[in-house]
Amino acid sequence: MFNRREAGVNFSQTKYKILNDSTFIPHIRSGGLASIPYIIVESFNIYNPEVVFVKIYNGTNFDIRIKKLFINGNSYVFSLKAEKHFNNIKVEVLDIKSEKKLLSREDNDFVKYIPKFTSGRTPIYIFDYDSFYVMGGYYKKDILVRKNLLQYKNLPPVLGLYLAEGGKINATFTNSWPEAINAVLDFVEKNFNIPRDSVRASICCSSSFKSKKNEIEKFWTEKTGVRNFSNNLHINKHVKSPQGILELSFCSQVIKELFVNLSYKLNIDKNFEFIDGFLSGDGSPILQNKACVTHHILFDSERKNYDKYKKMFKKYTTGLINKNRFVLYTNWDQNLELLMNKAYSYSPMKRFRFLKYFLSLPKTKLNKDSSKVIFLSKEFKDLRLYLIDFYDSLVLSNIYNKDEINKFKEKLK
């Protein structure tokens, strides 16, 4: 229980104003510190108040923040340095808890998958807020996360995409196709309440784009809605995608921890949608010989994900090549199953190559009249037209001329 006599405010109460049971106009001391009136802290009936969850008003607008509480003199204080630019500031105290309680992870939904600390050993606090959880801490900007995140329709493929091409140290995602970028942006926008036009983005591309910064940014904005680009293009001679590669940066350790832990800990390894997302990011179909399509997956040299991959692709024959390439050796029926379950659907060119290789197999030609093969043959033609239109849009965007883009379209024959 908070003791008024031991931890009351140690300055004149005329310097702040209590508006109601939980809201007050603070007196901000030098250094940006503000005390919480003892009567408000006392109302939460907590023995060891260490972290406060507040709504900080900036005129008629407000921010939801998690703040560290510490004792200064006889007062519990928190920092308002980050809000020094606010006008007509007032503070509503939504909750106060001990650190032990905040790190207990007693909830039964996806909260149990969130680690107690970031990889840098900074605590991750979680507060309940209407249909959201607020996650973060006093150290960074907090994020809103929808409570029904696990029911999000496209969660499995998004986690597969992130496992393949998302940052494991920082909250980033990299891909060359709008389909994959939009899947991740839709997820973040819907579940974290982060508008896509506020997400930071950078473009990595070949030297062909050196003088085309405005054009390529406009292209990606039209395809994805991203607008917050870095100041410079990143030129890399190894980039083969004519549209370049887009990297999203969500600037949140909590988002990274959530993506990584859900992809590792949810029991969705054998889910075809999860595999679709993963292959779309890190996989590549290879025509091994006239009768076999295999799938090669780039593999980190330290083999950190080896057990995860073995579990995910347990039904297939697998192996390692040169210690950095994980390979699925699949037969005709397994490739048909992968295709019918939309493998590579977030990477149109990889999907096109997979269809092309599969349709060229002798067994496929023997089964050309089957309904599934007819369906895949139609998809192959439709996808070819889509890719032609996509590459033509690079010409219309004044990024390439017709002769240059025809080199890429040759691959579609």
Write a concise synopsis of the structure shown.
The protein is of the alpha+beta class and 413 residues long. It has helices at 38-42, 99-102, 155-165, 178-192, 213-224, 253-265, 272-282, 306-312, 332-340, 348-360, 362-366, 371-396, 402-409; strands at 17-18, 23-25, 33-35, 51-58, 61-68, 70-72, 75-79, 89-97, 125-129, 132-136, 143-146, 172-175, 200-205, 228-229, 234-235, 245-249, 283-289, 292-298, 317-321, 325-329.
Provide an overview of this structure.
The protein is α+β, with helices and mostly antiparallel strands and 413 residues long. Among the domains are: 1-102, no CATH class; 269-396, Endonuclease I-creI (Roll). The chain is 34% helix and 24% strand. It has 13 helices and 20 strands. It is elongated, with a radius of gyration of 26 Å.
How do the helices and strands line up, and which of them pair or pack?
Blueprint: E1 17-18, E2 23-25, E3 33-35, H1 38-42, E4 51-58, E5 61-68, E6 70-72, E7 75-79, E8 89-97, H2 99-102, E9 125-129, E10 132-136, E11 143-146, H3 155-165, E12 172-175, H4 178-192, E13 200-205, H5 213-224, E14 228-229, E15 234-235, E16 245-249, H6 253-265, H7 272-282, E17 283-289, E18 292-298, H8 306-312, E19 317-321, E20 325-329, H9 332-340, H10 348-360, H11 362-366, H12 371-396, H13 402-409
Parallel strand pairs: 13-14, 13-15
Antiparallel strand pairs: 1-2, 2-8, 3-7, 4-5, 4-8, 6-7, 9-10, 10-11, 12-16, 13-16, 17-18, 18-20, 19-20
Helix pairs in contact: 3-4, 3-6, 3-7, 9-10, 10-12, 12-13
Helix-residue proportion: 25-40%
Q: How would you describe the shape?
A: elongated
Low-confidence stretches: 4-11
Mean pLDDT: 89
| CATH architecture classification name of the domain at 269-396 | Roll
The count of strands amounts to: 20
Here the CATH topology of the domain at 269-396 equals: Endonuclease I-creI
Cross-sheet strand order for the largest sheet: 1-2-8-4-5
CATH class of the domain at 269-396: Alpha Beta
- The fraction of residues in strands falls at 15-25%
- The rounded Rg comes to 26 Å
Label the structural class: alpha+beta
| N-to-C CA distance | 75 Å
Give the biggest sheet.
Answer: 5 strands, antiparallel
Number of helices: 13
